[in-house]
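User: Reviewer 2 asked us to show a designed sequence for the structure in our supplementary figure. I'm pasting the structure tokens here. Could you produce the per-position amino acids so we can include them in the response letter?
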């Protein structure tokens, strides 16, 4: 009993480690399959060469010097086939395949072409000439393939004239080599197409992997932005409440009032925790319409900070994409918390306008007396990335953000372009 078997429940399957040195599916990798196929092809050619040799010499050709010529042709054909086999089966020789393959195929085609003309049982050797020409058409350039085919045809014609062969040999065998050349070129075209398809498939898979990686990074960025905005809003408001509680204790010594402020801070911390969880889980389906979300945020802000905060809408409200809703809601929340921090107790007004081609959010708050105005590109709460975060959110949706002083008021205006609604499209 092995260590894996100890404690196994009845009916359960014990997983045993694979044998070292032999990965699962290793014997069926594409490289092994191709090598096995090449070995099988060459085994078939070797057996065919032996069978044709036996048939030829069991029925030797008749005529002057016919047998020595046939023997020489068989030897040269064997040399050509051997060189071809080395180029196919042995990796060190494969480096010279491009330069050495055409001569090897040409030698095989010439030897087989001339060796089939003396007659007797050697007529079948012409099959090796056809195989060599087909391989040249498939695996070499057009010029090299034509050279091999013409060499084989010329050898057939010369041998046919020398041994007084009929028109069947002089015309039929060259036609066979021509068909073999065409077949080889067609096979080579299919192979190139298959290689290109495999390369395109591999490229497509790489692009898919990159796209998935980009989607993951985008999702991480989106969630990080959500968490940052929620935490910046919640912690900024919480910091203001804690400062207020400290001021009440130090300046007034009012414990009851300080306790009330801390209770408000505790509620704000709980609300921030809920918002953070929603951001982590990227909940979008529970988001209310933008006007309702903003109205709730403005009301909560007014209760927390005891300020006058108003909210209004203009135009016909309509559903917005989730990204647009979240971007404008976070922009409004950031503007409210900035107003509470830099202009505490001042009146705030929030206006949401729906135009045919855009939605516009405007947050206006009165500036505190003596407050030094920061540049429009300044930072927000906690180190702030407030205005920067707003701008980045809107920029991702082709929106714009304007923030700056207007007399004794600070105005934040966010715009997002939208597709015209059905009523706008029908308008003349």
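Assistant: Here is a per-position design you can include in the supplement:
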């Amino acid at each position: 009993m092995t260590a894996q078997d100890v404690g196994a429940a009845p009916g359960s399957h014990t997983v045993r480690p694979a044998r070292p040195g032999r990965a699962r599916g290793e014997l069926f990798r594409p490289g092994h399959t191709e090598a096995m196929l090449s070995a099988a092809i060459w085994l078939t050619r070797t057996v065919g060469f032996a069978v044709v040799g036996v048939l030829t010499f069991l029925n030797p050709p008749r005529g002057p010097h016919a047998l020595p010529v046939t023997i020489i042709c068989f030897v040269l054909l064997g040399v050509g086939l051997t060189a071809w086999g080395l180029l196919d089966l042995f990796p060190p020789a494969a480096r010279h395949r491009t330069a050495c393959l055409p001569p090897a195929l040409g030698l095989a085609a010439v030897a087989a072409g001339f060796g089939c003309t003396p007659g007797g049982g050697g007529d079948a050797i012409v099959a090796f000439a056809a195989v060599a020409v087909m391989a040249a058409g498939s695996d070499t350039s057009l010029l090299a393939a034509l050279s091999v085919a013409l060499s084989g045809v010329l050898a057939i014609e010369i041998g046919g004239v020398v041994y007084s062969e009929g028109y069947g040999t002089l015309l039929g065998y060259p036609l066979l080599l021509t068909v073999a050349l065409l077949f080889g070129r067609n096979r080579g075209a299919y192979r190139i197409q298959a290689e290109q398809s495999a390369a395109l498939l591999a490229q497509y898979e790489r692009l898919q992997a990159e796209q998935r990686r980009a989607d993951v990074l985008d999702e991480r960025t989106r969630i990080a932005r959500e968490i940052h905005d929620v935490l910046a809003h919640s912690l900024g408001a919480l910091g203001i409440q804690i400062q207020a509680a400290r001021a009440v204790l130090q300046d007034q010594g009012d414990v009851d009032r300080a306790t009330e402020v801390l209770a408000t801070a505790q509620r704000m911390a709980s609300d921030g925790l809920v918002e953070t969880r929603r951001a982590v889980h990227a909940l979008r389906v529970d988001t209310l319409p933008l006007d309702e979300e903003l109205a709730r945020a403005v009301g909560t802000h007014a209760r927390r900070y005891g300020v006058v905060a108003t909210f209004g809408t203009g135009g016909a409200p309509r559903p917005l994409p989730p990204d647009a809703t979240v971007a404008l809601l976070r922009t409004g929340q950031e503007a409210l918390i900035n107003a509470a921090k830099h202009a505490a107790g001042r009146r705030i007004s929030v206006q949401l306008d729906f135009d045919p081609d855009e939605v516009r959010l405007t947050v206006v708050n009165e500036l505190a007396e003596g407050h030094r105005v920061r540049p429009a590109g300044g930072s927000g709460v906690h180190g702030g990335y407030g205005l920067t975060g707003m701008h980045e959110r809107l920029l991702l949706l082709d929106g714009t953000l304007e923030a700056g002083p207007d007399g004794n008021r600070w105005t934040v205006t966010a715009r997002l372009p939208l597709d015209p609604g059905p009523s706008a499209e029908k308008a003349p």
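For the response letter, you might also mention the following. The beta strands are 309-314, 348-354, 358-366, 400-406, 409-417. The longest strand covers residues 358-366.
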